[in-house]
Amino acid sequence: MLDVALTAFATFFVIIDPVGVVPLFVALTPGMDAAQRKRTAIRAVIIATGILLTFTLVGELILKYLGISLPAFRIAGGLLLLLLAIDMVVVKSSGIRTTTPKEDEEASHRPDVTVFPLAIPLIAGPGAITAVILQQSQQAGNLTAQLVVAGVLIGVLIMLLVGLLSSGGIMRVLGVTGVNVITRVFGIILSAVAVSNIVEGIRASFPALG
Questions:
Q1: C-alpha to C-alpha distance for 90 and 187, rounded to whole angstroms
Q2: CA 93, CA 210: separation in Å to the nearest integer?
Q3: Do the domain assignments include residue 116?
Q4: Is 45 a domain residue?
Q5: Which terminus has fewer CB within 10 Å in the chain: N or C?
Q6: Structural domain includes residue 72
Q7: Exposure of 18 by Cβ count < 10 A (0-12 exposed, 13-18 middle, 19+ buried)?
Q8: Of 155, 94, 149, which is closest to residue 127 (Cα–Cα)?
Q9: How far apart are CA 102 and CA 51, in angstroms?
Q10: Is 87 inside any structural domain?
C-alpha cells in the first residue's frame, strides 16, 4: 500500500501543483481582503474536492459505459499528462491547467471567481480528473488501495488549501521566479509519470511487444 500511496501522492501533487496555483489565486483575488480570500479559497477547494471525488467514484464506471479499455485510457491519459508536463516545463498556458484568454475575459465580468476559474479548471482541471480516473482504474478490484488513493487525493487538496490560505507569505518568499522553478521541476517528474502510463498502456494493448 505504501507504493500505491507514494505513486498517487507524487501524481496528484505534481498535477494539482499547490505551489503553482498560489500566484494564480493571488492574481484572481486582487481586491479582496484577508477574510474574503479565506472564504474564496475554502469554497473553491471544497467544490474541487467534490468534483474530483465524484470522478474517483464513477470514473471507472464511465469508462466501462463508454466501452473504453483501461490500456486505451492509460495511453490517452498519458498523452494528456505529457502535454500538461510540457506546459509546466516551459511555463506555458495552453488551457490544460490554466484558463484561456477568452475564459479570463469571461471571468473578469464575474463577481465571484470561486467556481470558475478557480475550482474549475485551475484545481479540478482535465489533468487532475484524468489522473484521478487513471489512479483508481489501476487499482480496480482492490477497494483498500482505492480508498488509499482517495485519501491521498484529499491530503493533497488540504495541502493546496493551506497554500492558498498562506498565499501572501509564499509569494513574498518564493516570488514568481521561485514558483516557476518549482513548476518546471514538477513538470519533469510528471513527464516521466506520463511516459510510464503510455508505455504500460501500449504493452497491455500489444502483449507481443513484451
A1: 9
A2: 37
A3: yes
A4: yes
A5: C
A6: yes
A7: buried
A8: 94
A9: 23
A10: yes
CB neighbours (10 Å) of residue 208?
5
pLDDT tens for the chain, residues 1 to 210: 899 999 999 999 999 989 888 888 987 787 788 899 999 999 999 999 999 999 999 988 888 888 888 788 888 888 888 887 888 788 666 555 556 666 666 655 555 789 988 898 889 988 899 999 999 988 888 999 999 999 999 999 999 999 999 998 888 888 878 888 887 888 888 888 889 888 988 988 888 766
CA-nearest of 162, 128, 164 to 24 is 164
Distance CA 99, CA 198 (A): 26
67: cell is 466501452
Range of the domain at 97: 2-28+39-203
Q: How many CB atoms lie within 10 A of CB 206?
A: 10
CA atoms within 13 A on the CB side of 19: 20
Structurally, the chain folds into a number of domains equal to: 1
